[in-house]
Design brief:
about 65% helix; two-stranded antiparallel sheet; 26 helices; mainly alpha; Butyryl-CoA Dehydrogenase, subunit A, domain 3; globular; about 600 residues
């Protein structure tokens, strides 16, 4: 039984003292020194298999330690956006990341210099076989870069340039508070808290919070626009120097997927869009509205006032995980009991949720703001899915653990689907079942319409940015146009400053931080569909698929473990039909 769970995570087990931890300061200093040493070892690297084994062991070790440090800093910043020491540590870790990037650039130079004969000899060595795919990937990618000296300069300059704009956004947006009038009081909400309020059952509350939300982001829109324009300008200039004319080249390679796969996925989304429009139209009727606003999309239906305690949510998730695989349940219990999860609903936290890995401890940390909604339950299950994915990867070589973002969403969305499907099946009455089906369809709207509007916006923004800076009013226009297209003009009010409020647009490590979510959602739906068909026999297949996510391109991953060609639209169409399968029941339950 899960009782009296603590809703704040334990970071002291890694480095006592938070952002002022002496142990963490020592860790960073030692890591800095070791990165310099590894850089020298790489520079003097010979051609023997043993030389390469030693160097690759060192490179992976410092990379793991850097991941550990980055995870700690990200947790510090998330739990308290006003922690100035944590913000300073972010810059320190980014500096170390730049040094590490230069070390890897030096390694790539050595990889590129090897003859094909010597290279094949290395790849055939049993000692390097577990990371052969990753090494081959590095050799191919290195051939498309600038000279090593230029790439090292890029890494160095990016700390105070490229990444600095992201830090500025985090600072400005982190200081944002949203004043909301409620029951005669003025509440000053963080962005994360205000986002939860926009799914309130009372439309007047949603409308009020949405208006204040728009006003708040409009008040810092100039600073956000400056950051966004400079991030994009940096990328475009770097891409041009490398001879790249497609802004999707880097995100596609980061996600180990082909352009035709992305196009097949979006084509399937567009072909099935009328199904979601049908859902939104019925929702408008049920809410008694002449038009559906942006903030109405997530309005609850049915028995929407039901709230779960944190312990109830934990028990429910664990029980559903156990139905699929006891190992998933055991992992979740460990996370809950050992304080791997920060879920407290309080001001000062950043918005959203995430899961990050501490590789030296083989532990994860999960960040959410839990207020008792079914959406919170889904987010919690989602992030635990991420943690379970990493749990399965922990004993692989560090290079083989680095899975791309699109497949990173496989285990998380799979866990979410398990939880939400069970909630629907166990509904106590028709009204609760309706509410839960609505939650599932809301999720489909978010991943298939909301995410697509982000992709459309970013694609068009980059095209305009090539001609010069794009101002706030034009950014608003581009955002609303993208929302209208993705939602097929089914709403009467849109969110012009969405580009400012969405952290993902400002992430410097993941360009186009959008389409991988839709990919992961639908890919995991295909995996889940097969799991339901095969039952317990699929458990080992599922684990093998997840363990291969860091050492295979996604088209090969799907073919090997699912037997499907994801560069064709059929897989994606079937996945969309699967995740929207409850639409007919929703329409039946809500028929007049």
């Amino acid at each position: 039984m899960l009782r009296n769970l603590v809703q704040t995570w334990d970071l002291d087990v890694f480095f006592p003292g938070g952002s002022q931890s002496p142990a963490f300061a020592d860790f960073l200093q030692e890591l800095d020194q070791d990165l310099q040493k590894v850089g020298q070892v790489v520079a003097n690297l010979g051609e023997s298999v043993e030389d390469w084994r030693v160097v690759l062991t060192l490179v992976q070790d410092v990379g793991n330690r850097l991941r550990h440090a980055s995870a700690f800093v990200s947790c510090l910043n998330a739990q308290n956006v006003k922690d100035r020491e944590a913000q300073a540590l972010t810059g320190r870790v980014q500096q170390l990341n730049a040094v590490n990037a230069s070390v890897l650039t030096g390694l790539d130079e050595k990889i590129s210099a090897l003859t094909e004969e010597k290279w094949n000899e290395l790849l055939a060595a049993p000692e390097l076989a577990p990371i052969a795919f990753n090494l081959q990937e590095r050799r191919l990618w290195a051939s498309q870069m600038l000279s090593p000296e230029q790439e090292k300069l890029v890494n160095s300059l990016s700390v105070n340039g490229y990444h600095g704009w992201s830090q500025l956004y985090n600072l400005v947006s982190g200081n944002l508070t949203i004043p909301v009038e409620h029951e005669g009081k003025t509440l000053h909400l963080s962005a994360g808290q205000a986002a939860n309020w926009m799914s309130h059952a009372d439309r007047s509350v949603r409308q009020h919070v949405f208006e204040r939300w728009e006003q708040a982001w409009a008040s810092i829109a100039d600073a956000c626009a400056l950051a966004l324009n400079n991030l994009a300008g940096y990328r475009l200039n770097l891409y041009a120097a490398r001879g790249w004319d497609n802004v999707l080249r880097e995100p596609l390679e980061q996600n180990r997927m082909r352009q035709e796969t992305l196009e097949a996925m979006w084509g399937a989304v567009e072909s099935r869009r009328p199904r979601l429009v049908q859902y939104l139209e019925r929702k408008r009727e049920l809410l008694g509205l002449s038009g559906l606003s942006w903030h109405d999309v997530n309005a609850p239906l049915g028995s929407s006032d039901t709230r779960l305690t944190y312990e109830q949510a934990a028990e429910f998730i664990v029980n559903q995980f156990r139905q699929f695989n006891p190992e998933m349940a055991d992992f979740a219990i460990k996370a809950f009991k050992e304080r791997w999860i920060e879920s407290e609903d309080r001001p000062g936290k950043r918005a959203g949720g995430f899961c990050t890995s501490f590789p030296l401890a083989k532990q994860s940390r999960i960040f959410v703001t839990f207020s008792g909604t079914m959406g919170n339950l889904a987010t919690l299950a989602h992030e635990l899915g991420h943690g379970y994915h990493q749990h399965l990867m922990n004993d692989l070589p560090p290079m083989a653990q680095r899975y791309a973002m699109n497949v990173a969403e496989t285990a998380s969305t799979f866990a979410e689907l398990i939880t939400l499907d069970a909630a629907v099946d166990m509904a106590k009455d028709e009204q609760e079942r309706l509410s839960l089906i609505d939650d599932k369809l809301q999720r489909a709207v978010a991943l298939l319409m909301n995410i697509q509007c982000r992709f459309l916006f970013e694609t068009r923004f980059y095209e305009e940015r090539k001609q010069g800076m794009v101002g706030v009013s034009r950014l608003n226009e581009l955002m609303v146009a993208a929302q209208k297209e993705a939602f097929a003009d089914s709403l009467c009010e849109y969110h012009p400053h969405f580009w400012a409020s969405k952290l993902h647009f400002y992430n410097t490590s993941v360009p186009f931080y959008n389409f991988p979510y839709t990919f992961g959602y639908l890919f995991s739906a295909g995996v889940y569909r097969q799991a339901k068909e095969e039952g317990a026999a699929f458990r080992s297949k599922y684990a093998a698929l997840l363990q291969d996510t860091g050492r295979m391109r996604v088209e090969d991953l799907a073919m090997r473990h699912l037997g499907v060609d994801i560069s064709k639209p059929e897989f994606w169409q079937e996945a969309i039909d699967f995740v929207t399968a409850h639409l007919e029941e929703f329409l039946r339950l809500t028929a007049k």
